[in-house]
């Protein structure tokens, strides 16, 4: 079983989360809800987690295919439900940007496999009712 320790360390809602290896993530509430920009908001952290999870998948797949990936970035945009008590992610769109001496079809397939099959965070969001779309931009250096 994995464990995370969470401590309030800044203002009313500024937290530091520490994993078992000592890695620290900073979280906070939005300014409009009393936060002070100490860290990312908890719902944003889900999008960050999905990006990291998917990034690891895509890079790993392309590495196994001996593709020369030289640059990698993502943009993740999401829209939440409009509810009073809580609001889940309703839609998420991911834009993958890959550069290098890589086969565009292999790169797009790696992105598809990540979002639709391997990324556990994406699957968690999907099971909560989120629709995830994606696109991949591939360019040579």
Automatic annotation (TrEMBL):
<dbReference type="InterPro" id="IPR003718">
    <property type="entry name" value="OsmC/Ohr_fam"/>
</dbReference>
<dbReference type="InterPro" id="IPR015946">
    <property type="entry name" value="KH_dom-like_a/b"/>
</dbReference>
<protein>
    <submittedName>
        <fullName>OsmC family protein</fullName>
    </submittedName>
</protein>
<dbReference type="Pfam" id="PF02566">
    <property type="entry name" value="OsmC"/>
</dbReference>
<dbReference type="InterPro" id="IPR036102">
    <property type="entry name" value="OsmC/Ohrsf"/>
</dbReference>
């Amino acid at each position: 079983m994995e464990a995370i320790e969470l401590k309030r360390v800044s203002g009313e809602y500024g937290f530091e989360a520490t994993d078992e290896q000592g890695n620290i993530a900073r979280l906070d509430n939005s300014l409009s809800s009393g936060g002070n920009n100490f860290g990312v908001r908890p719902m944003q952290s889900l999008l960050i987690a999905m990006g990291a999870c998917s990034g690891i998948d895509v890079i790993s797949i392309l590495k196994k295919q001996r593709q020369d990936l030289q640059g990698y970035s993502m943009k993740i945009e999401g829209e939440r439900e409009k509810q009073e008590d809580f609001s889940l992610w309703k839609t998420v769109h991911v834009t993958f940007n890959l550069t290098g001496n890589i086969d565009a079809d292999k790169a797009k397939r790696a992105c598809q496999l990540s979002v639709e099959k391997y990324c556990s965070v994406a699957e968690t969001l999907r099971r909560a009712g989120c629709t995830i779309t994606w696109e991949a931009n591939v360019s040579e250096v």
